[in-house]
Every structure is written in structure tokens, then in C-alpha cells.
Amino acid sequence: MSKPFSFKITNRLLDAHGRSGVISTPHGEIATPAFIPVGTQATLKALTPEQLAATGAQAVLANAYHLYLRPGSQIIDSAGGLGTFMNWSGPTFTDSGGFQVMSLGVGFKKVIDMDGTGDDAPVAKKDSLAWIDNDGVTFKSHLDGSRHRFNPEVSMQIQHSLGADIIFSFDELTTLHHSYEYQVESLRLRTHPWAERSLAAHKALTAQRYNKPYQALFGVIQGADYEDLRRQSARFYGERDFDGFGLGGALRKENIGEIVNWMCDELPENKPRHMLGISEPDDIFACIENGADTFDCVSPSRVGRNAALYLPTGRINITNRKYKEQFSSLDPDCDCYTCTNYTAAYLHHLFKAGEMLASTLATIHNQRFIVRLVDDIRQSINDNTFYECKEKFLSLYYAKNGRKMQ
Global pTM? Predict the structure, then answer.
């Protein structure tokens, strides 16, 4: 089978790994850098796929763990694949399920502590809902407590059934609470062997399902915030026949650009790199500058549903009383459906009244804000004005809290 999947570099930053390009998939092209919204259960909460497309989103990422549990990957396969099932005509991604199996099962909060200073350490073993061994992970469903097992072969089978254009190898999620010795053991005994098993299973399933559109497999690099492990892991994946790479795992926010740079130093230039789980503007600039091509995060929609909205001058809470009588757009320069049709006062009212429409309009705005920001960054790379774009945006966005640019 030929691979209707490719990556072409359009322009590069001088003296940095950042670049613009185009990823071609069976369901369309993705101009990079690109932000990929997360539709965990084959939907971005509060939006229809048509509303999501109107924000300018080029692709969507769904979660293998959740869709395996409900409605079941075979149901989605029978429906014609993820895109057909959710009425999304563009490219799709699915993650391997490893993050949810281990973060939900081992007892972390929904957002894992990324700086090693919080209280998100793993729960006591007797309270755990997941058990990791060198073959895979046995876990209990967070829905009903039923017992299941994921390993590389199972993850590949699920993701092939879901039918996304870009899928990810099964890996072990580690955090900054794990020791250096544990990180070494995790790479040697689990994440890297699981990657090779994922690749073998992927090739076998691709041959078996020859009548289905080709799915690109990205290998997920781990190593926490240790330079030697990140470089070692990146070299491991770069030497194998993966279609692209996932830049994964826990890392310290203040070092995010440096850690992405370590990995991209070692990776081949001709394959795309997806950063897992970032959406804050300073992180976006740092990751793009150092070589990330695409990235995803639930944050824009999640914070939007909780009344936090992005503005060029920083994030605000729309329930603040100052917006109660603002009978103008939240952001007069924003081209999203929300800002062109509704006032800040109306949004304030919807949240105060607990109306469902509040989540829809806030999510539309936040998704459009981040998608447009990344579109502007991509254009700045093509125009050779990236550093001017970065300084202008971040100096305004973080001016109120006095944060310095990375």
C-alpha cells in the first residue's frame, strides 16, 4: 500500500528548529503550525462539528480510551470511522489511550502535576485502578469499575478501528514525581519496547485492512525533564519507521522550549512533530520556535465552560461584574461568531443564569482565539517576522501580571 501521508516544509526559522509546512492525510491537508482541538468523545464539548469547523480548526483529536469504553471502537468502525461517525470531514487524530489509562487509573487528577511540586503523586497501591507491568496495563473503567487491559497490540487494534488519520504508539505515562531511575527503567522495559510492538502491530493491521485509508503512526517520546533521556528517546524513534513523532510526557513549564529543542535536535527534519497537551500562548510560541508542528489541548474549551475567556490583553472571567453592562462585543477585533453577534453583557448574563448557551459561545470564542493565534504565527514564519510577532503578542498578553516572555 502506498502512503497517502506526507509532510512538506514550507519555511524555516533562522537558528531554531521552528518551521511551517503542510501535512497531507487521506482526509485533507493541515497547514502547520496548527492547533488541534480535542474532541475527547468524538465531540468538542458544547459545539457541533460545524461550529468547530467555523473556528478555523483544521483537524480534531479524539481519545481512544474513552471511545473504547463508550460506544466501543467496533461501533465506530462499523459507522465508517471516526470522521464519518461525528460528521467531521477533515483530518482526525486519536491518542493511544495510555494517558487516560494511567492518569485516571493510577489516581492522578484530570490534569497531572507538571512541575513536581503539587499533591498529584500516585495514590497508594491499594486504591489504584490500574496495574502496570512490562507487557501492558490492566485497569478498571472509571465508568463502571469493569476490568480491562491495554497493551500495544490492543491500542493499535482500537485505533485502527477508530480510523483516525494520525494515531500514536502506546507508551507509559510517567510524571515528575517518578525518579530518574524509574524513568530509565520505563524507557528500557516499557515505552521503547511498546513502541516497537506498536509499530509491528500497526504494519500488520495496515496490511489486513488494505481497503481502509492509510493511518500514520507517530511514536511518543518520553524522558520527563532529563536531557539525556529525551535525546536518547528521540534518537530511538528517529531511527525507526514511524510517520511522525509525539512529544509527550511530563515536563517543567519553564523548560518547555528547551526540552522540545533537545528532542528536535535528534529527530529527522522530514517528519512532523506533535506536542501533546499545550495551549497557553507562551508555551505555544516556545514549542513552535523549537520545532513542534502541531499540538492539542483541552484547556481552551475547558476554561471557556468555566467562564474564562481569552483576550489579547490576557485571560478574563466574564462573570466579573464589570461586564454586566458592557453592551459591546467582548473583543471588537475578534472575528469569531460570538464576538460578531453577542455582547459581553449577554455572555455575563448567560453564565450567571447557568444557561447552556454560555458554554457554547465561550468555547467558540476561545477555540477561535487559539486557532487564529497559531494561524498568525504560521504566517509570521512564512513572512520571516516570527520574533516580532512573538514579542508583540506576549508583551501585551502578559502585561497585566508582569510576566516576562520566554
Answer: 0.94
